[in-house]
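Hey, quick one: can you model this chain's 3D structure?
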Amino acid sequence: MSSAPHRVAVLVYDGVTLLDVAGPAEVFKEANRFGADYRIVFLSPTGADVTSNLGVRIAVDGAVASEPAADTLLVAGSDRYPRARVPGDLADATRIPAATAGRVASVCTGAFVLAAAGLLDGKRATTHWQVAHQLAAWCPTCRVEADAIYVRDGATYTSAGVTAGIDLALALVEEDHGPDLAREVARALVVYMQRAGDQSQFSAPLQGPPPRSPALRRITDLVTANPRGDHSLGELARHLNVSPRHLTRLFHDELSTTPARYVESIRFDMARALLDQGHTATQAATLAGFPSYESMRRVFARKLSISPAAYQRRFRTTRRPGAG
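Sure thing. Here's the predicted structure for all 324 residues.
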């Protein structure tokens, strides 16, 4: 380990989302308790203190142009973007430290700031799923992966919304100090063990607006409320007194999927939650409504490229010794 501290510069500005700043900063601070050596500094374009989206004043350590090179430059997001174009002075204030930083990362809509600075041109990236299409439109040479927790492309990292900044910070800590230290940080902060960057940002029922058709909404509500039920195509069609062909057409037209795939996605989400809670893979398969463990394993392999057991080892929450 180098004797020099790893300098993490967090770029803040008026209207910055407070959680995008505090979440990752807390991860780096906590990592210092377990042997890391991060020095966290808050920088603004001019060196003046800024006011967050919640009205909380953030004291800064200096202006980006007057500070030494950062090992990690972290650009927080704001709900102002993409409602408005990123100002030129903010884009410039990002471009200057990025030129000398060891790695550059953004949280949530901070990706729009990176894009405005030209730092995402020709790269893979992500942001909050609700505005991913806008990032793709504003940065046409960037390949936006709307359903990822975080994305790394070389020395550039982008993350999704809200708590994904914590996942990204844990990934950076693991990159610097290995999985054991990152796991200790996650335990201390009582958060999920680091989620894989390509994990979905949201669960199946939230991947789009609810069905317009009251009949189809009855079916999706039925499946969501009881994933273990008999949700074969014939049974679901009988529930609405329609033909299987008509029900399949409804799913295709409104949800761009099939009834079987929808049921599978709901069961997959429930199985992940059960694994997170400490159930065995076999128990999770049964409680989530999968016909067998093997059928659940195939779904995990297709969606996450890992087995249920590997998912549980890596991603479940850490339970306190003696906890029930």
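One thing worth noting: The radius of gyration is 22 Å.
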